[in-house]
């Protein structure tokens, strides 16, 4: 079992190290969605420690996405995207303190829509 985890970890690390910037954003969106789904699962199960662990992972991912936004002088899109990430982060904080499934589902849906849009670019 340990061998498989190490092999999977090496594969993921290699995928990240060799990915283009566009692919890295895609990986972040996918990871955010995955951990959101895990948080929802653990909310349904009532596993408080895992809820917290998964939501913190999503929070970290949303912050990484926010910090990856490059400012553009002739566009307000980056500022709007940063505001969107701030909203998502705050929803995740509230979801974690309130153990609120609907807030997590909202963020998951937003991440899914952003991923879908990102893949079209």
Automatic annotation (TrEMBL):
Pfam families from the UniProt entry: FliS
Subcellular location field: Cytoplasm, Cytosol
Keywords from the named record: Bacterial flagellum biogenesis, Cell projection, Chaperone, Cilium, Cytoplasm, Flagellum
Keyword Cell membrane: no
Highest taxon of source: Bacteria
GO biological process: bacterial-type flagellum assembly; bacterial-type flagellum-dependent cell motility
Cellular compartments per GO CC: cytosol
Classification via InterPro entries: FliS, FliS_sf
Family from the record: Belongs to the FliS family.
The protein's name: Flagellar export chaperone FliS
């Amino acid at each position: 079992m340990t061998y498989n985890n190490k092999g999977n970890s090496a594969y993921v690390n290699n995928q990240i190290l060799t990915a283009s910037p566009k692919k890295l954003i895609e990986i972040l969106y996918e990871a955010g969605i995955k951990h959101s789904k895990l948080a929802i699962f653990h909310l349904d199960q009532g596993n408080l420690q895992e809820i917290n662990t998964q939501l913190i992972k999503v929070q970290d991912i949303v912050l990484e996405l926010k910090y990856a936004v490059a400012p553009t002088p002739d566009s307000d899109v980056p500022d709007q995207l940063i505001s969107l990430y701030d909203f998502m982060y705050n929803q995740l904080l509230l979801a974690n303190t309130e153990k609120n499934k609907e807030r997590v589902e909202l963020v998951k849906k937003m991440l899914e829509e952003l991923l879908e849009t990102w893949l079209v670019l």
